[in-house]
Amino acid sequence: MTGLSFTQVALSHFRSHKRVVLDLDARPLALFGPNGAGKTNLIEAISLLSPGRGMRRAATDNLVRRPEALGWKITAALQSLDQTHELETWAEAGGARQLRIDGKSAPQIALGRVARILWLVPAMDRLWIEGADGRRRFLDRATLSFEPRHAEAVLSYEKAMRERNRLLKDMVRDAHWYTVLEAQMADAGAVIQANRRGTIAALSQAQEAAVTAFPTAHLTLISPDPIPDDMRAMLADNRSRDMVAGRTLIGPHRADLKAVFADKGVDAKDCSTGEQKALLISLILANCRALADDFGAPPILLLDEVAAHLDATRRAALYDEICNLGAQAFMTGTGAELFAELGDRAQYAEVTEVEGQSTLNRKESQ
Fold first, then answer.
1. Residue 21 dihedral angles phi and psi, to the nearest 5°
2. Fold topology of 1-115+299-366
3. What is the pTM of this model?
4. In what order do the strands lie in the sheet with 300-303?
5. Do residues 304 and 121 make contact, with C-beta atoms less than 8 angstroms apart?
6. Which of 41, 118, 145, 233 has a CA 20 to 30 Å removed from the CA of 112?
7. Which DSSP symbol is given to 343?
């Protein structure tokens, strides 16, 4: 299987990094250094080489290095299956984010056609106990990794819903104003639901087929109210109720991802903190395995502080799975000792910060 990996990544005036060039091979890269040194900033930059707003969902202006505020730029050379691509994304000060692939302007969705990138960040540790919004984003991010056009369906649905909600708040009762919007919501909603169900099926199969040190989860797509395959009649019938609330109360935007620890039959939200973390890692690895079959190569992984709450046995198991999958992973941690189990299977770089500027020093070993 031909792989998927970055051979070079360069940052210019991105957060704490004034100028960084990383030459890489396909092995995982372990980034270590003190908190605040700029490790997460680097992998956030890589996350912007996939569709969407990146792993921190930051506004474009918040990514610029201060005090210069000159704008920022990320460039990368990507080996994808049997092709090499040049990627560039940037924003001028106060401007919108732009993208070029192989020297040509491109929409963000095009990034999903040449690369698949998954991430796990500490904020996701609360996935099972926070509100449904976070779990929907997690599921949609996984869905996007299989079907890059999923983002278009979500945007179409949300745009039509905002217009419908405006009519509801204005107490507009004329049905003609709703018909086109509800048709758009129904068509996009059907695609969203089908894509999400397909992703859950793929993740479930990948979990069941694997021999792994991490627990499996039974996954279900749930909603406060049943969502029919054709939403048109449901939306029309629910207008009066929605008008009282001033918003749309039924649809894919209310869906939730439920996970149950398979071996114990316990809902993920009721599991211990360690079990919740292990279930989350298990899903990321399942996503990775499923994508290796679907895309033709395992995705690139961004794992921020992933080892911090794992014991040595679980850390070794995680690193073994990443290496056995052949995934290029960018991993951060405060100390080199957190990556000891990787040995020469990885690349290493120490990240330090002096007077607000991050510096990378490549290491031959940890």
1. -130, 125
2. Rossmann fold (3.40.50)
3. 0.93
4. 117-120, 300-303, 329-333, 29-32, 347-354, 357-363
5. yes
6. 41
7. G
Q: Which residue has the tokens 């990794």?
A: 145
CA–CA gap between residue 85 and residue 247 (Å, rounded): 44
The residue assigned the tokens 């992973």 is: 329
Beta-strand pair 29-32/329-333: parallel
- 196-252 confidence digits (pLDDT tens): 999 999 999 999 888 888 999 999 999 998 899 889 999 999 999 999 999 999 999
Residue entry with tokens 């999958």:
325
Q: Which residue has the tokens 């569709």?
A: 51
Contacts of residue 20, defined as CB under 8 A and 6 or more positions apart, other chains included, come to 9, 10, 11, 42, 358, 360
**Complete DSSP assignment for 238-298:** THHHHHHHTS--SSGGG-EEEEEETTTTEEGGGS-HHHHHHHHHHHHHHHHHHHHHHHSSP
DSSP3 helix / strand / coil % (the chain, rounded to 5)? 45, 25, 30
Topology classification of domain 126-292 = Glutathione S-transferase Yfyf (Class Pi); Chain A, domain 2 (1.20.1050)
How far apart are the C-alpha atoms of 203 and 209, rounded to whole Å? 10
Through-space distance between the first and last CA atoms of the chain, rounded to whole angstroms = 29
Spell out the domain ranges in the chain.
1-115+299-366, 126-292
> pLDDT, tens digit, for every residue of 119-134?
999 999 999 999 999 9
Q: Which residue has the tokens 């990240």?
A: 351
